Amino acid sequence: MSEPIHRQLGMTDGEYDAVVGILEREPRPAELAMYSVMWSEHCSYKSSRAWLGRFPTEAPWVVVGPGENAGVVDLGDGWLAAFRIESHNHPSFVEPYQGAATGVGGILRDIFTMGARPIAVWDPIRFGSLDDPKNRYLFSGVVSGIAGYGNAVGVPTLGGEVEFDDVYAKNPLVNVMALGLLRREQLVLSAASGVGNIAVLLGAATGRDGIGGASILASASFDEASAEKRPSVQVGDPFEEKKLIEACLELYDRGLVVGIQDLGAAGISCATSESAANGGMGMDVDLDRVHVREADMTPGEILMSESQERMLAIVTPEDLDVVLALAAKWEIDASAIGTVTAGPQLKVMHRGELVAELPAASLSDDAPLYHRPVAVPEYIETAWATEVELDLRDVPNVLLQLLDDPAIGDASWIYEQYDHQLFLNTVIGPGHDGSLLRIKGTDKGLAVSTDGNGRRCYLEPRAGSARLVYEAALNVAVTGAKPLAMVDNLNFGNPEKPGVMWQFTESVEGMSEACEALGIPVVGGNVSFYNETDGVDIFPTPVVGLLGLADPMPQSPPRLDRAEDGMDLWLVGDDERDGDLAGSAVARVLGAPHVGRPASPDPAAARSAVETALALAHVAPVLHDVGRGGLAVAVAEICIRSGVGCDLMEREASSWFEESPHRLLVATAKEDGPPAASAKRIGTFTGTNIDFGTHGSVSVADAASTWRQAIPRRLH
Amino acid sequence: MKIQVEITRRPGLRDPEGATAARALRDLGFTSVSDVHFGRSIVVEVDGDDRDQALTDVEDMCRKLLANPVLEDFTVEVLD
Prior knowledge:
Shape of chain B: elongated
CATH topology of chain B: Mth169, Chain: A
Radius of gyration of chain B: 16 Å
Distance between the termini of chain A: 51 Å
Oligomer: heterodimer
Strand content of chain B: 25-35%
Strand order of the largest sheet of chain B: 2-1-3
Number of strands of chain B: 3
CATH architecture of chain B: 2-Layer Sandwich
Strand content of chain A: 15-25%
């Protein structure tokens, strides 16, 4: 006996009953398909919605908060920035190149849907150890997919971050953040309005790509049988996307659209129902008008298809011919597939037959909302009761092991595949703490940092997640940019496990507290649950993407490669703390048991560090956030990039590797004295060695070659 | 022995290269073109004279390296 269709589509019996309740009858097949996708975890946030309201979302400069395709903030002088982060984890595991490529395509559409021209992309990615050939295949495939799509569509990729841990071996994390720029009058929203207005489907033909992708790939866990899910893989076409970007931007410029929505997960179902519901309207849709790739597609397939590079524009009947002509000029296909009605019903016809008739808003507003059980997972008690014990006395040797780690070593193998200079706006590109882009024709600069740390969040989700916000804030502040707003990508395991829900709720709380402490609103985000394979969950891995505004931009922003012989090295921030080895890079690299309780960050110290960085960014040649690997790695990064050694003052061996938060390294000319009242001098740049005094020394040349080879030597 | 491998995109998957070629052909006046499908052809030379073994080996090579089984189908045959 086979399973009922709704279960095959991933719906519970209770959800099915709810559909019957809404329709007051049994659903037709196409209707069931629509509800199953729109009510999937991926589209409806049914397990997370109850908690997401905790995030602070308001500030005077927020123009569009969570809920639209992208968050939008005011940069002053009529400029707005639109940005968003998304995950493409499961598709990238199934087919790394196309999965990552279509992730880039999807996030770009979210940006230009708002009326903004996409100006940059960042990719935080996580894989299993590079010692395993399968992980090398996934890693190199994802990097080429990002490069292949981003470079071809003509949007620079400015970096991101990378981590390797076997918990991601069968569930890599591929997150992507995009940023766009627009003038205030160009802002477009998704709502359809005006009875009689026409819904025009623009872009690629609809095929059987990713049928049920959202419900099947993104909302259920992987097991060995997932090979059979392969046919739903989506294939991206960056040139089609480029044409679509230009066509849409021209449509906005000429005032030809009333509302617009991109087609992502759940395709036409989602775009038609959301535009109608957001405008409080209904819509009549005729599937025979949809330009399809294969003639024999069922109505359910057309509605659920996740073919890439498509948009749904709402236009007035008077403008329809002009819109179709404009589409033809850009060589993109366009079909008028629907008409806005007074509502509230969404009616879908196929070959003269009514295949769906349902309240448009019910697909989103009536989606299930679960308050899943939350409980502290068992591992926590043991982990917190255990101290991390490490022998760190051989400081130079431990440092070399850290520099050889692919998550700490030189990432240029990755970013050299990305074009990061397109548009010539890039002031600080990949390989620094934060990226910095100029806004042409102004003194303003936009800075972005993406940060995640799954290992620390596993041991202390609240403190670990709060630290991500503080680290990202410091990373943008060292470029001279004031933290402005944040998006987050919450990658977690199976929410049906109370321990995973605990990690999730703690993480949301930690990030919210940190955002409140720094006055940073959250303007958007994405939740990716079910990141588990064969019953093993990934580390809770929230990734934050923080946008900062430098106004004015420093004349000569600090860089890691500007230390010179004779300069002093200063440390700003408190490093007399305990508990900063738990979840640290050194504990991982030295193979210590994954235990301990990471110490909590200090909001006041975080604020003070950000303020100090903002002031110093206009004067200091080198300003560097102390992050993964602690002080030793931060010093080595400056020495390697600047090609100069450093005589360091004595300190306890372990303090070179502890990852205490809210710390900055500053290099200044000798005659300039302390860069801040609280600064402590910890060394002088000179010679060709990184000299730890009685702990020994390592030559900059050795450190550099180890650091440079960390990724390449594992791939070749 | 030479083994001919034909690799084609799996049916139903999007083929941007084929679609672009089809559009360009129609622009050139070949109005009867309804679609174009790209593929790849590979010849693998192997030692030995066990044809069945050679075909099995090359199929395995296709699955592991030569083709991308997520996106592509393949056929193998011995060239005489």
